[in-house]
Structure formats: structure tokens, C-alpha cells
Amino acid sequence: MIYSSPPDAKARENALDVTKSFIVQAPAGSGKTELLTRRVLALLSTVKQPEEIVAITFTRKAAAEMRTRILTALRYGQQDEPEEPYKKETWLLAKQAYERSKALNWHLLHNPNRLRVTTIDAFCLGLVGQMPVLSRMGIQPGIIENPDKIYQAAIAHLFEKIDNRPEKYALSLNKIFNFFHYDIDYLSYLFQGMLAHREQWLPYAIHHRFEDRLQQSLHAIIENVLISLKIEFEKHPHFNQLINLLNFASQNLAQTGNAIIIDAWPSTKSDDLTKWQYIAQLCLTKEGGWRKRLTKNEGFPAENHFKTRQEKEIAASYKEQFIDFLTQNEPDNALCKQLTHTLQLPSGSYYEEQRDLITALLDVLLLLAGELHLQFQRTGKTDFIEIAAAAKNALGTADEPTDLLLTLDNRIQHLLVDEFQDTSKMQFELIERLTSGWQNGEGRTLFLVGDPMQSIYRFRQAEVGLFIKAQSEGIGTLKLVSLQLTANFRSDKKIVEWINNSFRQLFPVVNDIGNGAIRYSTSDVVRDYATETGVFFHPHSDEEQFQTTLLNQLNTAMTDPEQESIAILVRSRKHAKMIMPWLRAVNIPYQAIDIEALELKPIVHDLFALTKALLYLGDKTSWFSILRAPWCGLTLADLLIIANDSHDQTIWETLKNISALLNLSTDAYTRLDRVVPLLDHAISQSFRLPLRQWVEHTWLALGGAACLPARSTLTDAKSYFDLLTTFESGNESLQFNDLEEKLKKAYSLSPLTEKARISIMTMHKAKGLEFDTVILPALESRTRPDDKNILVWMDQPRSHQVDNDILLAICQPSGMENDKLYNYIRSLEKEKAQLEATRLLYVAATRAKKQLHYYFKFDGSQEPGNNNSCFLDLLWPIIKNNIIDTFEKPQLIHSTPELNSSDLETPIIFHRLSTDFKLPDDIDLHLVEKKIASNEDVRFDWNEKNQIDRQIGTILHRIFKAIAKQGLQDWQSLTETEKNSRIEILSQLEALPAHTIPAAKVKILFCLDKMFHSTRGQWLFTQLSQAAARVEFALETLQYHEVKQYILDATFIDEHNTRWIVDYKTADNPDNVATFLEEKQQLYAPQLEKYGELLAKMEKRPTRLALYFPMLDEWVE
């Protein structure tokens, strides 16, 4: 059941007040996207233009979902009023928004692009494009998702001609090289990592003459820790007596040479740090726990050390009191943590060598950033970090705004940001600049939504502390009303209650902007499923027991209709790779999402070798690979013979003279007789075709498709070919390097079938999703430490403080121990990582709707540790009593197939083609329809040589497609201003030169006017509005070893059951219309007839072919 009214209904109602700015904390399952949708609907009822509302999120998927939700709601608003109260609220908002859209001729359902829902990256890209000079980006470059090669080139340039640099930079470079013992490879590795995070350290490099600020920050950080430590001590009931015990211990240690005397509580100034660290050492062991015994090393000598009886009694009393104090403290309590933190603190001053090295390194990093900028200019490419920085530059500052910021200030009335907890410092500053000058109550609003408990993207520079800062302080001068959602619409009552009880203990008690600590916010129960639900724990003593228990559970789940969706969520892909062979061995279908690397798939390995062999005829390794591949299938003995005869020539040259190879087997001669001519034909087509088409045709001709043993391998082949689509023929070296990099980032796509109710993915990938059953395996697994950086920094925002606290430290050369300051900053990062691990576990658990299952290794002999290095360490204090009391070896519930190593390790078998294999010459092996994505280039036959006319034709083609889809009436209902605006947008998308756009508009409108007043044009678009009609209908056919692709402009079935195939031609003003039409008919007749032949293989009905010339209002059959 689901309860009718959510417990946080008042907060949801308040969020629809379009006159106020809000920051909304929306925990898992609380309906965040629905709230955003309703906010947008409410705003649409008030604005003059929909473009005044801008909604920003962080992924294309989230942006698409939000846009779809809004459009779906608008359609919903046209329906009858629903009975359910909550649905009625959404319906009313949608109805009002739809009526305003209709009244103001927005036509949002037909013009969804007027809804400005975008990603943060796309928004930044748009800003840069509008102000190329102020953004310092110039002509907009291409975006590269994996810029490692460009980073490496910039580093290589940095290391060249050091002595030719300006003296300041030459001295800094030499100082850094000398410090790292001229270990260029190690420095290159460190610098590459730094470039990937340069938005974080670049401000320091630009304004790095701030030694005083570093020193002030160090003092402030130390003093904040000491204040917190003293507060914890003051909570102890015998706080005042403790000083006598500390004084006694310090006096005794002074006799052994210790110079520190604790005769009063130290101040919380950084000057007294050593005294507090001395106190911490008295209280804690080296492992960080409370001492259980005291000796002379802690200032409590044995009894015989003292002379008089009174001295002995006092010493015994003090020792007993101090031990009582220590034992009264709970392990790892707040005081223990503060003492541990105090021991980690560095000294209160930067020493001279540290300052000199940091200054030199910042000089070098600034130089490196400049080299990277130049490298971006050389390649015409850039990364998202550069785009975001350029977007900030394009806006200027609050005190010195650019024209763009002033323009946006007028255009944007309402800004909404989704997933605000994932905001980086640079993105936060961008939002600050966009809203600079906004005041509460003036009509413009900011609406931030997110859940800091789900902030899990530190590796993308997300700073969850910024969410807390915005909650307490607002953004810039804009104060935000803080709202808290509590309803969980996703999970069952038992799961919500368990998560509340457990994670309340796991999350920090209070928020901390500095380290990103987030306290737990309780969720309210909304759902109570009438099925078996709850949280279950599955300890196992070894891998075999884990396998048995898991397969039994999955077999049970697969027969349960209530468990329609099952997710196995892993922290590391290696755990998924362990589980997937088990599922395959017992034929349990599943879909793995971004788990298996594409480059490791056998079919991709063969295709990669084929690509490299075609591009590099001299690459012997690749040539041996394609001769060994199943489409050729030579034995190792035959390959050895070919290798021995190829010492002074390429493998390809040897194959072309195959008759000279006297010792090959008969089987090899037969196979090479088929393969060599096909390869010869392929090589003759070198760089005449796009890379994908070239490789795919060759693979098909060789019989590659006939070797595939399963559908999944065909999916992998398609994924590889899709990667090739992004490359054009030309500079093969650059293409191939890029291809290698893209393959490293690509994952195999498991084909989704109706039976595959099980999804396997990482916990990060599952964010935003939900499943009936969630399985979390390998809780005991530990993660590897973060990579080492040449420079570490701490930039912590503080409440009600303009400037952040900043610390910088440089690492030591390879093999040497780092200084305490470097280790301290690393320890703070480790603390942040541990806090984020708790949030990641929360995200994984809250994906479950009905059942949540935890799997972990535990044999009952030893309890997990307490260093929080794995999920089991985190959960153990909460679950240990139940686990220890009930632990026993799991019993089999169902009989499962016995698995052995051969079941799990059997690879996919690729069978060699038989020696008599032959690809059919004139038979279409497949004929498929595929939909062309709206953002793909569409093939269109043009007669005009002029590029401008070609672009105008493409714009017309897009409009024709929209009219066919939405109806002729929709276009005719637009005002002239709206038509001009739409054509202008299409012109910009098509990169039409600005000075040609006015004339292009006239030509396009003339063509459209001709069509709409033409009987033939109206008839054509009436036919295309039918369900069976197709626009940009794509067909592929495989003939011999060529894949042919054909795209039909339009096809439909008329009232007489006749198939029409129509091609648009936008030529105008021929000298002689009759002659022109006759020439075009002869030119395009073979093409149209081919279209007819292809469709005839798919259906049996009469076919008519026609060319339509809208500019001339002519029709030729």
C-alpha cells in the first residue's frame, strides 16, 4: 500500500512559491525530479517566455529525463481531472502551464527546444560560444573526453629548452628537477595527474605570492582543532582534576629530559600545539586507542622510584585516577578522535625550504598550464575543464560584469540546479556569477535541489561542503529558504526503518563544511508492500559458499513475479567479473552495464588488429593476428613459416607472393586463396572510405560475421564499429592513437533480453535507479589508496568566512618519506574519502524497493577491523550481534548445478570458417530498418554545388521532417516571428555564415509558402502524417562484400494501398524547367528504382516513385 498524503506535503507546497529562492534537501526516493517538474510547471504559468527559465543538471540522461517529465506533464494537463489529490495538484499545474503556452503561442509540445533544460557542460559551452573573445577561447574548439595525449604533449613541451625560458621559470624548473633527482618519467606521471585537476590548483599558481595567507591558514586550522579538543576535555566531569594528573606525569618525565611541563591547561593557540600533542601521547597508544596501562614512559614510574610513603601513595592515586579516566572513555569516541587528529597536525610554521619549493612548483605548474593552452590551440581541441574556466571568463565578475552577464541577467529570471550536492568549486562560482546582483523578493529566483547524503563524486571534484555552505549562507547576496523532504516513495517500510536506524549511527553527528561531514536526515515511510520484504545478511566463509548462497537466492528470485528487477551492485568491477561466469555457467541471464572492458573482448581484439593491419602494412603483430583470426584461421605452424619468409619484407608483401612459400600446408593455401584477394581489394580502397565503412566492409567480406558464436559478440562488434564512426580517413596516426584511447574507456554492452531481469553495475552507475531487489556483494573488499600528487592542497570553506583556509605541500621524490604537512593534508583527504564511502553505501542500499541483501566474508573466527577501510568495517558495529549469534554455514535451499573450474573458465569459442566458405554474391544477407538519430548527419542528394545552397537544403529538410511529424497545421499556426526564430536557430545549428542568414530566411520561407499553397504539397504532408509513413527511412543491404546504405526522404502508403517513395529536390530557377525536370528524372530514376526493389523484399504491394521540387511546385514520377 502507499499512504495518500506525504508527511512532507507542506515543504513540497512551499517549494512551489515562485517568488522565493530555495535550497531543497531531497533524500533517496523522495521524488526530487517530480518536485523539479512541478516547480518548472508553476514557473511556466508566470513567465513571459519559457526561455526565462533555465534548468541545469549534470548528465545528459538527467536533462533528458527532466525534459520528458515536463512534456509528459503538459500532455497530462490536457486530460480530464484525476481523482487522486496528489495527481490533481500536478494536473492543475500542468493545465495552467499548457493554457499559458497556448495563449502566448509557445506551443511547447511542438517546440520542446524552448524548454531550456541542459547539462552544466552544455551550458558552459553555450556561454563560450556567445563570447569567444571574452572567454579567451576564440573559435570554439572540439571537445575531447580523454585528453591524456594532449596532456602528455604539453608536458613534453614543458621539458624542452629549459634554459631558453625566462630566468624566473628556468630557475624554478631546475629547482624542481633537482629536487626530484631529474626523474623525468616520475615527474611526467605526477604532472599528468595534476593537469586533470588543474581547476583546483590553478588559482594558487596564478596568485601564489601568498605566504602570509598560507601561514594564517595553518594557524587557523591548528587552532580550530585545538578548540574542538579542549571542548571535548571540558565535557569530562573531572576536567579540573585532570590537570593535576598531567602535571604529575610531565614533572616525572622532565627528570628524564622532557622539556614540556603541563602545569595548566594549554591555550588553543598554535604556539601550544606541542603541549597538546604531548597530552595526546600520554592518553593514546601508537595505534590510536586508549592506553590500558601506564609506565614510566608516560610519567608514571614504578613504586620503587619514589622514596617516601606519601610520595608512593600520591603516585599510586594519580596513576589509578588517570587509568580510570582512560578506561571510562568509549573506544574511538569524540575525544579519542580529536586527540588522534591533534597528533597528525604539522608544526605551526612553513619552513623556508617548503616555501621555496612550493613557490618554484607553482611557477612550473603555471608554465605547464600555459603549454597546455597552446597545445589545445594547436590541436583545435579542448577539455571540459577549459570550457568551464572560459565560461567564467565570459561572464566577468559581479563588480565588472561583461555584456553577456548583463544580457543573461535580463534573460534568465529563474535558475534551477539539480543534483546540487555534486557541484564543484568552479561550478559553484559560475552559479554565483550568474546570480550576482540578484536580490530576494525582486522576482528572480534560484532553486537548488540535491541530497548531500548522496554526494559520491569527489573524483569529479564535487565538494559536498558547498551544499552545506549554501544552506547556511546562501549564494552570493541571495539568501535561500532551506526545505527538507522526508517522504520515501521508493522503499518498503522495513527497508526505510532499517536504513534510518543504521545510517543514523554511521553518518557524522553534525555537518562540517570543511571536511564534508553530513549528518543523517531521517526518511518517512510511505510504502508498505504486501510481499516478503526486508534487509538480509549472508555471511560466508569462503568463495564456494558465497557462490552457492548467491545462486540459490537468484534462482528463487527468478521464479518470484514480485521481483521483476534485480540489481547486483558492486563497488569494484572485479567483483562483477567474478560473479558473471557463475551466472553464465547455470544459464541465468543478466545484463552487465559498463563492467567488461570492450578492448578485452576477443572479437574486438581481432577487429582492432584488422584496423591496425590495414592502417599499418608493416605491423607484423597485427598481420599475424588477422591471419590467426577465425575468418582466416591459419595454424601456428603455418604462421611460423610465413614469419621465417618475412625477415626483410612485410607480411603483406610475403602474402602477395604466396607461391614462393613452399612449405605451407594445403589448408593454409586454400584459406589464403580466399583471404588474400579480399585483403588486396580492401587495401586498394585505403582512405577512400570512412574508417568504419572501410574496416566493416573488409570484416564482412572476410566472413567475420559468420564466425560469431553468440549475439553478445555481435553487440561487441557493433560497439567497436560505432567507435570507428567518429573517425574520418586522413591522418591515420592521429586517428589510431585516438582509437586506442577510446577503446580503453569503452565497455561491452550485454544484449538486454526479456529474460534478463538481473542487472550488474557499479554502485556509482546505479545512482538515480531503483530495483525490487538489491544485492551488495563483497562488503569485506578494501579499496586501493588514492594516487600520489606532486602537490597536495586543502581548500576548505568555513562558515561565514570570505576566504577559505588554504594549505599546500609538495611530495618528496620517489622512495623518500613525505613530511608531516604533506601527510596531514593526505590524511584529511582520506577522512573525506571515508565519509564518502559511507554515503556510497547509503546510495547502494537506497536503490532497493522490496529486498536488500548484504553478502560478506566472515567465518566466525575473527571480527572485522575498525579502520573503516571497507564497507564491512562500517557496518560491523551495527550488525555484529545478530551475525555472531546466528552465524552458521548456509544451507542449500535449492539444488544448484555443480560448478567446477572448467565451467567457469571456458572461453567463448570462435570457430574457424571452413575452407570452402563463400559469401553469397547476390543474396542480401540482411535487410534492416534503422532509425537515424536526430543529431546525425543525413545523406541528402543535392544538385547544387554551392555550399550555402546545400546548407539551406538541409535546413528545409529538417523543417519537412518536423512538419511530417507534427502536422502542417502546427507550422501554419506559428507567427512570422516564431517562424523566423526557428529558421535562425536551424541556421546556427547548420553553421550558416551570419551574413547569409537573412537571404536564406527569405528563400526558405518562399519554399515553404509554395508548398503550403500547393495542392500537391498539402496532399504530401497529409500522407506523411499517417502512422505508417516514414521520413528519413534508412535501409542497409549486404551484397557480396559491400554494405550499401540507402536513405529515403519520404515513403508512405496511400488510400489505394500503394507504396509511394518520394525524394525532395530543392533546386530553383533553372533556365528551362521542362529540360531540367527531364534531366533530373533520368539522373535519379536508378536510385528510386533501387529503393523500390529494397522495399519490395519487405512487402508485397504496388509501388510508385516520385521526385518533388517544392521550389518549383513540380512533381515528376
Query: Major sheet: order of its strands?
Result: 3-2-6-7-1-8
Helical stretch count? 40
Integer-rounded radius of gyration: 35 Å
The coarse silhouette is: globular
> Which structural class do the helices and strands define?
alpha/beta
Strand content: 5-15%
CATH architecture call of the largest domain: 3-Layer(aba) Sandwich
How many independent structural domains?
5
Summarize the structure.
The protein has 1117 residues and is an alpha/beta fold.
Task: Provide an overview of this structure.
This protein has 5 domains: 8-137 and 383-489, Rossmann fold; 157-183 and 191-379, no CATH class; 525-594 and 757-885, Rossmann fold, CATH 3.40.50.300; 598-745, Orthogonal Bundle (PCRA, domain 4); 944-1116, Lambda Exonuclease, Chain A (Alpha-Beta Complex), CATH 3.90.320. Helices cover 49% and strands 12% of the residues. The protein contains 40 helices and 24 strands. A 6-stranded parallel sheet has the order 3-2-6-7-1-8, sandwiched between helices. It has a 6-stranded parallel sheet with strand order 11-18-15-12-14-13. Strand 16 and strand 17 (805-810) form a beta hairpin. The two termini are 63 Å apart. Residues 729-734, 889-897, 900-909 and 921-945 have low confidence and may be disordered.
List keywords for this structure.
single chain, 1117 residues, alpha/beta, Rossmann fold, six-stranded parallel beta sheet, 40 helices, 24 strands, 49% helix
